[in-house]
Design goal:
The protein is of the alpha+beta class. It is 18% helix and 33% strand.
Length: 290
Amino acid sequence: MLKKLLFAFTLFTTSLSAFGQNADSLTVVKTKWQRTRVARQVKLFQHHFNGQNLFGANQHISFLEIKNTGRKAIFAIGAEEKQLITTSDFGLRDTALAAINGNFFDVKNGGSVDFVRVKGKTINTNHLAVNGNRARHQQAGVVIEKGKLSMVKWDGSTDWESQLTAADVLLNGPLLTFNDIDEGLDTAAFNRLRHPRTCLGIKPNGHVILLTIDGRNAESAGVSLFELTRLMRWLGCTSAINFDGGGSTTLWVNGMGTNGVINYPTDNKKWDHEGQRKVANVILVKKNKT
């Protein structure tokens, strides 16, 4: 009898979870996003999910969708070897249309803890664990060639990133989905707890999504990586990779928002646009001048 009750309870909770996911997916698909044209081939989408109607919570999501042709709008990496500066300062310095925070970094000494190459020059190398293992955020990344961005996955070799031929490489992760196959995530606290998140996704038509979802506030709870994986799927991405999140999560668009900051960074613990954290690198969207 006890086994039957446990089976029935498991079936009931599984059904509730599936129902919730279906409801959330419909919520995202049917959302009337506030759309703003940033430049040719670049659009900004924003929406505040109020009334606890996305993942059972209030959520604030902002993302850019960029046509990834390498023509009107191009991608680039902004990085510092040791210094940390804000995402907006990176964007302004490089006269970009937009910028989003990049990978994980050394808070004390500055610079990325993951491999970064810019214009053919290695800026930072991987800081491996004591046992020599790679972190999950060193097992995938993005590469940029002639202004076009694509995603890459670790092949298991020790010098994989050094062998990549692209002039611009930025490792990041964990990888959520790659070529329409979801990656396995364990139940570590970093994956299952809700935080502000930054994510990059690629759609089947090649368009790139640069997304922030705010968190640590009653106005926006943030998401787990499991929820982020589903969200990027619902937005049409067949590949998606998590970037550094938490207090680093920042989306900047030149000439918009408050000093260009579109989302609600959390480092000042206020629901405003002033709480940027200094970071080691960013992904830039720039106007092609050639």
